[in-house]
TrEMBL record:
Protein name: LysR family transcriptional regulator
Family the UniProt entry places it in: Belongs to the LysR transcriptional regulatory family.
Gene Ontology terms, MF aspect: DNA-binding transcription factor activity; sequence-specific DNA binding
Native organism taxonomy: Bacteria, Pseudomonadati, Pseudomonadota, Gammaproteobacteria, Oceanospirillales
DNA-binding is among the record's keywords: yes
UniProt domain HTH lysR-type: residue ranges: 5-62
Family annotation (PANTHER family): HTH-TYPE TRANSCRIPTIONAL REGULATOR (PTHR30537), HTH-TYPE TRANSCRIPTIONAL REGULATOR PERR (PTHR30537:SF58)
Domain of life, per lineage: Bacteria
InterPro entries linked to this entry: LysR-type_TF_proteobact-type, LysR_HTH_N, LysR_subst-bd, WH-like_DNA-bd_sf, WH_DNA-bd_sf
BP term (GO), one: DNA-templated transcription
Keywords: DNA-binding, Transcription, Transcription regulation
Keyword Magnesium listed: no
Amino acid sequence: MRSLPPLTALRVFETTGKYLSFTHAARQLHVTQSAVSRQVKQLEDYLGVPLFVRLHHKLELTDAGQQLLAKLEQAFNLMEVAVQELRDPNQRQKLNLLVPPTFATRWLAPRLASFHSSFPELELSIHNSASEHSLFDCSIRFGHTAKPSHYSELLMLEQHLAVCAPDMVDKAQQLAKSNASLLHILDQGERLPVWENWLQAAGMSDQVDVSRGMEFSTLDQVINAAINGAGFAIIDRHMITRELKSGTLVAFSDIEVSGPCGYWLDINAERQGLAKVIRFSEWLREVTAESPTQAH
Protein backbone atom coordinates (compact mmCIF):
# COMPACT_ATOMS: atom_id res chain seq x y z
CA MET A 1 0.00 0.00 0.00
CA ARG A 2 1.52 3.31 -1.10
CA SER A 3 1.73 6.06 1.50
CA LEU A 4 0.71 9.14 -0.46
CA PRO A 5 -1.19 12.34 0.20
CA PRO A 6 -4.35 12.91 -1.89
CA LEU A 7 -3.61 13.11 -5.59
CA THR A 8 -5.72 16.27 -5.81
CA ALA A 9 -3.44 18.06 -3.37
CA LEU A 10 -0.37 17.05 -5.38
CA ARG A 11 -1.98 18.24 -8.62
CA VAL A 12 -2.95 21.57 -7.03
CA PHE A 13 0.57 22.07 -5.68
CA GLU A 14 2.15 21.21 -9.05
CA THR A 15 -0.02 23.78 -10.83
CA THR A 16 0.56 26.43 -8.17
CA GLY A 17 4.31 25.80 -8.23
CA LYS A 18 4.37 26.15 -12.01
CA TYR A 19 2.63 29.55 -11.97
CA LEU A 20 3.66 30.73 -8.47
CA SER A 21 0.15 32.09 -8.02
CA PHE A 22 -2.89 30.79 -6.15
CA THR A 23 -5.11 32.88 -8.41
CA HIS A 24 -3.61 31.56 -11.65
CA ALA A 25 -3.68 27.97 -10.37
CA ALA A 26 -7.34 28.33 -9.39
CA ARG A 27 -8.16 29.60 -12.86
CA GLN A 28 -6.32 26.67 -14.49
CA LEU A 29 -7.98 24.10 -12.23
CA HIS A 30 -11.44 25.71 -12.35
CA VAL A 31 -11.74 25.97 -8.57
CA THR A 32 -11.73 28.85 -6.10
CA GLN A 33 -8.54 30.48 -4.83
CA SER A 34 -9.43 29.48 -1.28
CA ALA A 35 -9.72 25.83 -2.39
CA VAL A 36 -6.23 25.99 -3.86
CA SER A 37 -4.81 27.60 -0.74
CA ARG A 38 -6.52 24.98 1.46
CA GLN A 39 -5.17 22.03 -0.58
CA VAL A 40 -1.62 23.42 -0.45
CA LYS A 41 -1.88 23.97 3.32
CA GLN A 42 -3.13 20.41 3.83
CA LEU A 43 -0.20 19.07 1.77
CA GLU A 44 2.28 21.13 3.79
CA ASP A 45 0.72 19.79 7.03
CA TYR A 46 0.99 16.22 5.70
CA LEU A 47 4.66 16.69 4.73
CA GLY A 48 5.58 18.72 7.78
CA VAL A 49 7.50 21.31 5.74
CA PRO A 50 6.51 24.60 4.05
CA LEU A 51 6.42 24.44 0.26
CA PHE A 52 6.00 28.16 -0.42
CA VAL A 53 7.24 31.40 1.04
CA ARG A 54 4.16 33.62 1.08
CA LEU A 55 5.14 37.22 0.36
CA HIS A 56 2.91 40.21 -0.31
CA HIS A 57 1.14 39.45 -3.62
CA LYS A 58 3.88 36.94 -4.44
CA LEU A 59 4.79 33.28 -3.90
CA GLU A 60 8.24 31.69 -3.89
CA LEU A 61 9.08 28.01 -3.67
CA THR A 62 11.09 26.80 -0.70
CA ASP A 63 13.93 24.33 -1.29
CA ALA A 64 11.53 21.52 -0.36
CA GLY A 65 8.95 22.94 -2.76
CA GLN A 66 11.44 23.07 -5.63
CA GLN A 67 12.49 19.48 -4.99
CA LEU A 68 8.91 18.21 -4.86
CA LEU A 69 7.82 20.19 -7.93
CA ALA A 70 10.58 18.74 -10.12
CA LYS A 71 9.64 15.17 -9.18
CA LEU A 72 5.90 15.76 -9.55
CA GLU A 73 6.31 17.25 -13.03
CA GLN A 74 8.12 14.07 -14.13
CA ALA A 75 5.47 11.87 -12.51
CA PHE A 76 2.53 13.74 -14.06
CA ASN A 77 4.24 13.68 -17.48
CA LEU A 78 4.52 9.89 -17.24
CA MET A 79 0.87 9.61 -16.21
CA GLU A 80 -0.14 11.82 -19.15
CA VAL A 81 1.76 9.61 -21.57
CA ALA A 82 0.22 6.43 -20.13
CA VAL A 83 -3.30 7.83 -20.47
CA GLN A 84 -2.70 9.12 -24.01
CA GLU A 85 -1.40 5.76 -25.14
CA LEU A 86 -4.55 4.04 -23.93
CA ARG A 87 -6.89 6.67 -25.37
CA ASP A 88 -5.14 6.70 -28.74
CA PRO A 89 -3.22 3.54 -29.71
CA ASN A 90 -1.60 5.43 -32.60
CA GLN A 91 0.04 7.75 -30.07
CA ARG A 92 2.37 4.90 -29.15
CA GLN A 93 3.85 5.12 -32.64
CA LYS A 94 4.16 8.91 -32.86
CA LEU A 95 7.52 10.46 -31.96
CA ASN A 96 7.34 14.14 -31.02
CA LEU A 97 10.60 15.97 -31.71
CA LEU A 98 11.83 19.50 -31.02
CA VAL A 99 14.43 20.42 -33.65
CA PRO A 100 16.07 23.73 -34.72
CA PRO A 101 14.52 24.84 -38.04
CA THR A 102 17.68 24.96 -40.17
CA PHE A 103 18.90 21.61 -38.82
CA ALA A 104 15.47 20.10 -39.54
CA THR A 105 15.38 21.45 -43.09
CA ARG A 106 18.97 21.00 -44.17
CA TRP A 107 20.26 17.99 -42.25
CA LEU A 108 17.37 15.94 -40.89
CA ALA A 109 14.79 16.15 -43.69
CA PRO A 110 17.07 14.73 -46.43
CA ARG A 111 17.65 11.66 -44.22
CA LEU A 112 14.05 10.95 -43.22
CA ALA A 113 13.46 8.50 -46.08
CA SER A 114 16.13 6.34 -44.46
CA PHE A 115 14.37 6.57 -41.10
CA HIS A 116 10.99 5.69 -42.58
CA SER A 117 12.52 2.74 -44.40
CA SER A 118 14.05 1.43 -41.16
CA PHE A 119 11.03 2.14 -38.91
CA PRO A 120 7.84 2.32 -41.01
CA GLU A 121 5.71 1.87 -37.88
CA LEU A 122 6.90 5.17 -36.40
CA GLU A 123 5.50 8.57 -37.34
CA LEU A 124 7.52 11.72 -36.67
CA SER A 125 5.99 14.99 -35.54
CA ILE A 126 8.71 17.64 -35.89
CA HIS A 127 8.41 21.03 -34.19
CA ASN A 128 10.79 23.99 -33.99
CA SER A 129 9.14 25.81 -31.09
CA ALA A 130 8.61 24.56 -27.54
CA SER A 131 5.26 26.35 -27.48
CA GLU A 132 3.89 24.12 -30.24
CA HIS A 133 3.67 21.01 -28.06
CA SER A 134 3.41 20.30 -24.36
CA LEU A 135 5.62 17.22 -24.17
CA PHE A 136 8.44 16.14 -26.48
CA ASP A 137 9.92 12.66 -26.61
CA CYS A 138 13.34 14.15 -27.30
CA SER A 139 14.93 17.23 -28.81
CA ILE A 140 17.92 18.26 -30.87
CA ARG A 141 19.50 21.44 -29.55
CA PHE A 142 22.20 23.83 -30.73
CA GLY A 143 24.56 24.72 -27.90
CA HIS A 144 27.89 24.54 -26.08
CA THR A 145 27.28 22.02 -23.31
CA ALA A 146 25.08 19.17 -22.10
CA LYS A 147 21.63 20.03 -20.73
CA PRO A 148 21.25 19.54 -16.95
CA SER A 149 18.82 16.88 -15.68
CA HIS A 150 18.65 15.22 -19.11
CA TYR A 151 20.38 12.46 -21.00
CA SER A 152 22.38 14.79 -23.25
CA GLU A 153 24.65 13.53 -26.04
CA LEU A 154 26.75 15.56 -28.47
CA LEU A 155 25.82 14.46 -32.00
CA MET A 156 28.19 16.66 -33.97
CA LEU A 157 30.36 19.74 -33.62
CA GLU A 158 30.00 22.45 -36.21
CA GLN A 159 32.71 22.40 -38.90
CA HIS A 160 32.99 25.98 -40.13
CA LEU A 161 34.06 26.82 -43.68
CA ALA A 162 34.48 30.22 -45.34
CA VAL A 163 32.24 30.09 -48.44
CA CYS A 164 30.83 32.25 -51.19
CA ALA A 165 29.19 32.03 -54.60
CA PRO A 166 31.57 30.77 -57.34
CA ASP A 167 31.80 34.15 -59.09
CA MET A 168 32.99 35.81 -55.86
CA VAL A 169 36.04 33.62 -55.22
CA ASP A 170 38.46 36.16 -56.70
CA LYS A 171 37.01 38.92 -54.49
CA ALA A 172 37.42 36.63 -51.47
CA GLN A 173 41.17 36.84 -51.86
CA GLN A 174 40.83 40.52 -50.98
CA LEU A 175 38.63 39.88 -47.95
CA ALA A 176 40.12 42.79 -46.01
CA LYS A 177 38.67 45.15 -48.65
CA SER A 178 35.25 43.48 -48.53
CA ASN A 179 34.29 44.05 -44.90
CA ALA A 180 30.81 45.21 -45.81
CA SER A 181 30.16 41.92 -47.59
CA LEU A 182 30.43 39.75 -44.47
CA LEU A 183 27.25 37.82 -43.67
CA HIS A 184 26.42 37.24 -39.98
CA ILE A 185 23.99 34.91 -38.17
CA LEU A 186 22.11 36.13 -35.10
CA ASP A 187 21.36 34.03 -32.05
CA GLN A 188 18.98 35.59 -29.51
CA GLY A 189 19.75 39.01 -30.95
CA GLU A 190 23.54 38.66 -30.81
CA ARG A 191 25.91 37.81 -33.65
CA LEU A 192 27.48 34.39 -33.32
CA PRO A 193 31.29 34.86 -33.24
CA VAL A 194 31.91 32.52 -36.17
CA TRP A 195 33.79 35.15 -38.17
CA GLU A 196 36.00 36.04 -35.21
CA ASN A 197 36.86 32.37 -34.63
CA TRP A 198 37.59 31.70 -38.30
CA LEU A 199 39.68 34.84 -38.79
CA GLN A 200 41.73 33.98 -35.69
CA ALA A 201 42.42 30.49 -37.06
CA ALA A 202 43.36 32.04 -40.43
CA GLY A 203 45.69 34.57 -38.79
CA MET A 204 43.63 37.47 -40.15
CA SER A 205 42.02 38.91 -37.02
CA ASP A 206 43.65 42.32 -37.47
CA GLN A 207 42.88 42.52 -41.19
CA VAL A 208 39.09 42.34 -41.32
CA ASP A 209 36.52 44.51 -39.53
CA VAL A 210 33.91 42.00 -38.35
CA SER A 211 31.63 44.75 -37.03
CA ARG A 212 30.52 45.46 -40.60
CA GLY A 213 28.29 43.45 -42.91
CA MET A 214 24.74 42.11 -43.02
CA GLU A 215 23.08 40.05 -40.29
CA PHE A 216 20.24 37.52 -40.47
CA SER A 217 17.99 35.82 -37.94
CA THR A 218 18.37 32.30 -39.39
CA LEU A 219 21.24 30.33 -40.88
CA ASP A 220 19.03 29.46 -43.87
CA GLN A 221 18.84 33.17 -44.71
CA VAL A 222 22.63 33.48 -44.54
CA ILE A 223 23.05 30.47 -46.83
CA ASN A 224 20.59 31.81 -49.41
CA ALA A 225 22.20 35.25 -49.30
CA ALA A 226 25.63 33.71 -49.91
CA ILE A 227 24.34 31.56 -52.80
CA ASN A 228 22.94 34.68 -54.45
CA GLY A 229 26.19 36.61 -54.17
CA ALA A 230 25.32 38.92 -51.28
CA GLY A 231 28.62 38.28 -49.55
CA PHE A 232 30.93 35.87 -47.74
CA ALA A 233 29.84 33.56 -44.93
CA ILE A 234 31.20 31.17 -42.33
CA ILE A 235 28.89 28.16 -42.41
CA ASP A 236 28.82 24.72 -40.85
CA ARG A 237 29.76 22.13 -43.47
CA HIS A 238 26.95 19.82 -42.30
CA MET A 239 24.33 22.39 -43.32
CA ILE A 240 25.58 22.97 -46.90
CA THR A 241 26.51 19.48 -48.09
CA ARG A 242 24.23 19.78 -51.13
CA GLU A 243 25.50 23.26 -52.08
CA LEU A 244 29.15 22.24 -51.81
CA LYS A 245 28.52 19.17 -53.95
CA SER A 246 26.63 21.10 -56.64
CA GLY A 247 29.08 24.01 -56.60
CA THR A 248 26.50 26.70 -55.79
CA LEU A 249 28.74 27.48 -52.79
CA VAL A 250 32.51 27.04 -52.77
CA ALA A 251 35.08 27.23 -49.98
CA PHE A 252 37.57 30.03 -50.68
CA SER A 253 40.05 28.87 -48.02
CA ASP A 254 41.40 25.58 -46.67
CA ILE A 255 40.97 26.85 -43.09
CA GLU A 256 38.27 24.91 -41.24
CA VAL A 257 37.25 25.56 -37.62
CA SER A 258 35.67 22.91 -35.41
CA GLY A 259 33.11 24.01 -32.79
CA PRO A 260 32.82 25.39 -30.21
CA CYS A 261 29.06 24.81 -30.62
CA GLY A 262 27.32 21.72 -31.89
CA TYR A 263 24.07 19.80 -31.98
CA TRP A 264 22.98 17.81 -28.93
CA LEU A 265 20.39 15.08 -28.47
CA ASP A 266 18.47 15.75 -25.25
CA ILE A 267 16.09 13.23 -23.67
CA ASN A 268 14.11 13.71 -20.47
CA ALA A 269 14.84 11.01 -17.90
CA GLU A 270 11.29 9.65 -18.03
CA ARG A 271 11.43 9.20 -21.84
CA GLN A 272 14.72 7.32 -22.12
CA GLY A 273 13.22 3.85 -21.81
CA LEU A 274 10.57 4.29 -24.52
CA ALA A 275 11.15 1.94 -27.46
CA LYS A 276 10.42 4.67 -30.03
CA VAL A 277 12.98 6.99 -28.42
CA ILE A 278 15.60 4.23 -28.32
CA ARG A 279 15.04 3.45 -32.02
CA PHE A 280 15.28 7.08 -33.06
CA SER A 281 18.40 7.66 -30.92
CA GLU A 282 20.18 4.63 -32.38
CA TRP A 283 19.27 5.65 -35.94
CA LEU A 284 20.42 9.21 -35.28
CA ARG A 285 23.80 8.02 -34.01
CA GLU A 286 24.28 5.87 -37.12
CA VAL A 287 23.48 8.59 -39.64
CA THR A 288 25.47 11.18 -37.68
CA ALA A 289 28.52 8.92 -37.85
CA GLU A 290 28.08 8.74 -41.62
CA SER A 291 27.70 12.53 -41.99
CA PRO A 292 30.67 14.08 -43.86
CA THR A 293 32.97 16.28 -41.80
CA GLN A 294 35.84 16.68 -44.25
CA ALA A 295 36.01 17.77 -47.86
CA HIS A 296 35.79 15.02 -50.47
